[in-house]
Amino acid sequence: MKNISIAIHGGAGTIRKDSLTKTKEQEYKQILQLALDAGYQLLEQGATSLDAVEMSVSKLEDSHLFNAGKGSVFTANGTHEMDASIMDGSTLEAGAISLVTGVKNPVQLSRLVMEKSDHLFLSGEGAQDFARSVNCEFRDEDYFYDEFRHQQWLALKGSDTFQLDHSLSKEDKFGTVGAVALDKFGNIAAATSTGGMTNKMYGRVGDSSIIGSGTYANNLTCAVSCTGSGEYFIRGVVAYDVSCLIEYKKMSLAEACTEVIQYRLKKIGGDGGLIALDNNGNIVLEFNTQGMYRGRRSVDGLNEVIIYQ
Amino acid sequence: MKNISIAIHGGAGTIRKDSLTKTKEQEYKQILQLALDAGYQLLEQGATSLDAVEMSVSKLEDSHLFNAGKGSVFTANGTHEMDASIMDGSTLEAGAISLVTGVKNPVQLSRLVMEKSDHLFLSGEGAQDFARSVNCEFRDEDYFYDEFRHQQWLALKGSDTFQLDHSLSKEDKFGTVGAVALDKFGNIAAATSTGGMTNKMYGRVGDSSIIGSGTYANNLTCAVSCTGSGEYFIRGVVAYDVSCLIEYKKMSLAEACTEVIQYRLKKIGGDGGLIALDNNGNIVLEFNTQGMYRGRRSVDGLNEVIIYQ
Fold first, then answer.
1. A122 vs B: CB within 8 A
2. Which residues are within 8 A (CB) of B185 and not within 5 positions of it... i.e. 6 or more apart?
């Protein structure tokens, strides 16, 4: 049996100890632990890494604390538009969706696109119709309404300013969520989900639904899920870049993640982070911001959730 | 002054000499030459590689022969949905759009997203609204109507079958268009544009709007524009893969293109091709199908348009 292991993130940004109350901090840690354990328990029961990342990301989507699923931020015209993607490192199959509204768990929809459609990436109304055709769970506007998110939006509404959900708000509520996992069969997988940026132009697609940028998995190299300034992650093709440094330049997982996040991404002006693992059970949580909501758990007893640097 | 050069493609597929009449072949060659020359003349006049690729792709979009712009195929519900992207190798800036309808030149819209929006990738209604806000040229349904495309669609309508526009039809009309160029400043750029797949599920996004998969440009390595089975090009992160093989594995441009198209893409079941150049003026036109509409022209006198192997 391989070293089953899993890592998750709930977004990276200017998270400082003085900006979170003790209670809030506990709340975050509790949900992170819950999401981590839910995925890990599946792995223990012999489920696949795909099942585990889908489960962990779903749990984060179900919380109002993170900018994905239930906690998604408001776009410029007051709607919620969600993006997600998933990739199977054993087959290089993948699924992605963008600009969906009302879907309870976008990550589950991305997996359904992978498994039940002839396409890889569906967007907007077409993605919604597909979701209905495969009986995806929908929720009404109330479910996605959050007072804090609404205030965040009202403060920016009508202006040209948008925020990455981790840069300007007083009480920073951080973004994108993701997971990477290794199962007992030695297969790895990655998944990412986001509600985008507060007051973003509607129709904006970020890196979370882009295979190669926000999500990538390949048994030969690594599984990666990213979070941060999406446009820069697309330009840097960040997730696949980590994989290429391992495959072509023979870097270790840790070296590759450092190179990409601390040097290559920074060089073009991008901030954020990623979680990555390989099929030897190595886990890396790398970011160039002040903090990243994150956690990791593996068969050798490692089990932690962390927020700050 | 650098070796100004440009290459274009009009799609790859099962193009055989016996499937095109002499007249049709001349028609294709004429438009390819016109598009090639239009971009090249700009380069001669001292324009940037970005201007040149935008010009050449626009010319191909303006023809009914290729599956992009005017010649776009019909989706499953009888509409036209177009994708495009562009990337500047000197800044790594990029722009992308997907699922737009009625825009005369999607490649021009992708450049406007890069230069005039705060985002990199806009899709659907949001992209349309942005297009209107920057006074993009629109055309009505009649402009995009083509009898052959309509027949192609009617033959598949109501079925679950879709076609890549280069696999099933009797008179093959080939797909996606693209261009790569090197200007006198030593900067390279790439652009791609497509009308998708006949009878595709609406909302399907292919590789043509994905930076890293369908389009990539970086002065340090190469500029690439792809065409083929989009889902496989996304899974293979094809355009960036060529760049990584050059940067990390020190392959030549030709070696990298062969490795990616003849081995890595084929291994996962993908078919298609790409055009690529570097800032030394090397040009590669690589495909693993029976033919690819293509052309290249450079300052040293090279000037050709080719269809078959």
1. yes
2. B2, B48, B90
